[in-house]
Amino acid sequence: MQNNGLNQTILSVRNLKTYFFQDEGTVKAVDGATFDVYAGKTLGIVGESGCGKSVTARSILRIEEKPARIVEGEITFHRANGSVLDVTQLEPGSREMRAIRGGEISLVFQEPMTSFSAHYTIGNQIIEIIRLHQSVSKRAARAQTIELLRKVGIPKPERRIDEYPFQLSGGLRQRVMIAMALANNPRILIADEPTTALDVTTQAQILELLQELQEQTRMAVILITHNMGVIAETADDVVVMYLGRVVETGPVDDIFHAPQHPYTRALLRSIPSIMSESRTRLPTISGSIPHPYNRPTGCPFHPRCPDFMPGTCNRLEPQLLPVNEHQQVNCFLYHEPQPHQSNDEAVSHE
Amino acid sequence: MLSFIARRIMLGALTTWVISIIAFLVILLPPGDFVDAYIAQLSGLGQYVSLETAANLREQYGTDQPFHVQYIKWIRRVAHGDFGQSLEFGVPVADVIGDRLWLTMVVSLGAIALTWGLALPIGIYSAVHQYSFGDYFFTFIGFIGLAIPNFLLALILMYIGFKYFDASIGGLFSPEYQLEPWTWEKIWDLIKHLPMPVIILGMAGTAQLIRIMRANLLDELRKPYVVTARAKGLTETRVILKYPVRAALNPFASTIGYLLPFVVSGSIIISVVMSLPTVGPILLRALVAQDVYLAGTIILMLGTLTVIGTIISDLLLMWIDPRIRLEQR
Question: SS3 letters for chain B?
Fold first, then answer.
């Protein structure tokens, strides 16, 4: 593999569309997501709840659940053995997909409380994933598990391994979750709101742990969150999503210092700052997220957008196009409407 | 954990004691005492009971003494395996129940095994393939099983068995073995007679358990830990069997407590219809004939079975669910 310190892509998502087909109608949970994941880098995906962050993560692992289906798009994954494949073309239950799932791409969930089964010890649940992807003896897997638990900072791992998840605190449980995700040295770790259910001190510890582990293993991390602070602290690149679409992408510094899309700007304005004057109202984004069955036509953000251009934004769909060397924005403020351009011609940044 | 078990067993013993008092109350319930009833029955047969014998009997059963003395006398005799005299049959209660108890156990265990053997896989299938053709099919069958009174089902199956399969209907034995001592031929005869009552007895319970299993599993399938298991790369079958099914077993195990006595007492009508030599019909007869010692003994037995069933289900729950095992101290 050629890698001269430059960005080495291991996962590219192109125009991914995952819809939920329900009796009441179709919910376009992910409607054209496009981004790249680089080895050793952290990609932050940020957006309000319901913007399709988690569904994107699940689509990558092909564990999107029943009414949901990937209808369009490509998810190109560069496997450890050098082969490149489109995950959307695999059967979710196929041997190859299962080898990737939990082996090369693993997932850390939001709810450390309910994401473990209460019926088995944590050792049992970690040893299971090790022996599923590596041919090692039970004893070796157990030794590996103890090592993993030690690595993620669990005190007395040789005792904790035989405990049940409900005997651990939330913070420890999230560490165990991370240990389990790391069990097979994945190329990509997807962390879906890994700190949302934890208190602030524990949040910081978990994020630190993730960064440390990333430095050791050079794995890529996809960090999904609604917390701009977490993004600022950990991400290298940022994808901002709104209603299933990517509205802006770019390196973290550009996103924070020169946000382009009106939605990104509004998001950043609504973070409380230690500098701001006390007793002033925090700016909010006007309106609320539209009902999923009732998506606005044109740009989905136009009803809440301060820069709304009548006649354009509510009729035509903008595309994700570069505005400078690093950033891409999905907005008519930067691009003339191109009515004949098809939607899936999104451009990747190098 | 041991203290938990010890506490459960002690509570069980306490409950059994209370049940024994209630059973004894049932014995005392009819007007007059047992000796009056006994004398009346014997004189009905043209036998004469001397005052002396009557006095001896009163002394033996303690019928002229206060409640607690009578109770202690009774419970002492029960502890020695003497359950008193059955008026209706004119023999000791133990002889009346004896074989019937074992046959009841055999039929009940058969019915429970069938119930579980069918309900578990069908319930799992129905939940995993919710709203599929198979799910609707089993739901339909299940509701029919719940809705048709069992004795009607018994009659229909017996008719079909007789008409088309030339099966001997009713009872657990062919006539020629009825009064024979136990031999291998008799046991084989019993095995041949078992399927019909077992199917009929198991039917209603199966339909109900399918619904319970399906509902439980549907709840569990939506929990985040199932997604975790899937994200590990396990096959779907393994995901479902190892994680949500295990969790869905909890309510299953807790119903065992009621299953044991239900199959014994709930089967009275079917047993009468199919003339099965089990305990159920005897209880009915004892109650109708005010055969106090027989009725009291069966009630005591059913109560004890419930207690044993509950303890078994508690132990099973402890085994299935570590939260129960570890949080009880």
Answer: CHHHHHHHHHHHHHHHHHHHHHHHHHHHCCCCCHHHHHHHHHHHCCCCCCHHHHHHHHHHHCCCCCHHHHHHHHHHHHHCCCCCECCCCCCEHHHHHHHHHHHHHHHHHHHHHHHHHHHHHHHHHHHHCCCCHHHHHHHHHHHHHHHCCHHHHHHHHHHHHHHHHCCCCCCCCCHHHCCCCCCHHHHHHHHHHCHHHHHHHHHHHHHHHHHHHHHHHHHHHCCHHHHHHHHCCCCHHHHHHHCHHHHHHHHHHHCHHHHHHHHHHCCHHHHHHCCCCCHHHHHHHHHHCCCHHHHHHHHHHHHHHHHHHHHHHHHHHHHHCHHHHHHCC
